[in-house]
Amino acid sequence: MKKIAIFASGTGSNAENLVNTFHNDTEIAVDSLFCDRENAPVIEKMRRHDIPVFFFPKEEWRGDCLEITALLQSRGIDLIVLAGFTSFVADSITKAFDRRIINLHPSLLPKFGGKGMWGMNVHRAVIAAGEKESGITVHYVSREIDGGEIVAQFKCEVTPGDTPETLVAKIHALEHRHLPSVVRSLLK
After folding, report:
1. How confident is the model at residue 63 (pLDDT cuts 50, 70, 90)?
2. What global pTM score does this model have?
3. What are the backbone dihedrals phi and psi of residue 171, each rounded to the nearest 5 degrees, phi first?
4. How many angstroms separate the CA atoms of 46 and 7, rounded?
5. What is the structure's pLDDT at 143?
6. Is 105 assigned a catalytic role?
7. If pLDDT is split at 50, 70 and 90, which confidence band does 118 have?
8. What is the pLDDT of residues 33-48, one digit of tens each?
9. How many domains are contained in the chain?
10. From CA 128, how far away is CA 7, in angstroms rounded?
11. Cis, bond preceding 110 (omega within 30 deg of 0)
């Protein structure tokens, strides 16, 4: 059985989608959630599914993260999925899980990536730039924010009437449709 650890900080719609997708799978399972926000809605969602939750405050993510790395290794994690995770991933984790950590980014990288480009900031920037398309990027996590090798991208049209709110709905649909299949392909 291949084990996934999810790193998330927000509502957890993608985390819950992964749990539901792999619920009765015989080859892949969501093993655990690692969170950096004590009251993040994702925590309650994972607890409803009996997924173990590990909370480490943001300050701990800024350190060497050796305790987090050891915990991931002791649980036999095969793939880490960042799904709305707002803390930086320390070198100890990226080295221990080289090419086994992916991030889900809500734009077509390299556009609209990097420091400050998360959540609604991305969608506002896409619309302000007059882009005709947007989408999602799944990429390996590297030391550079949103700079790791791209694994997959999926696109949607940005129409003249789109707002950040309508664009985020399109992006969420792409995320929910495609992230589980990308995860599955990486664990084969």
Report:
1. confident
2. 0.96
3. -65, -45
4. 12
5. 86
6. yes
7. confident
8. 999 999 999 999 999 9
9. 1
10. 30
11. yes
Report how far residue 132's alpha carbon sits from residue 123's, in angstroms, rounded to the nearest whole number: 12
Give me the DSSP letters along the chain: -EEEEEEE-S--HHHHHHHHHHTT-SSEEEEEEEES-TT-HHHHHHHHTT--EEE--HHHHTS--HHHHHHHHHTT--EEEESS--SPPPHHHHHHTTT-EEEEESS-TTTT-STT--THHHHHHHHHTT-SEEEEEEEE--SSTT-SPEEEEEEEE--TT--HHHHHHHHHHHHHHHHHHHHHHHT-
- C-alpha to C-alpha distance for 98 and 114, rounded to whole angstroms: 20
Catalytic residue from among 105, 123, 139, 172: 105
Average pLDDT of the segment spanning 151-172: 97
**103, pLDDT greater than 90:** yes
- Predicted confidence at residue 41, as pLDDT, reads 97
- What CATH number corresponds to the domain at position 115? 3.40.50.170
Domain residue limits at 32: 2-186
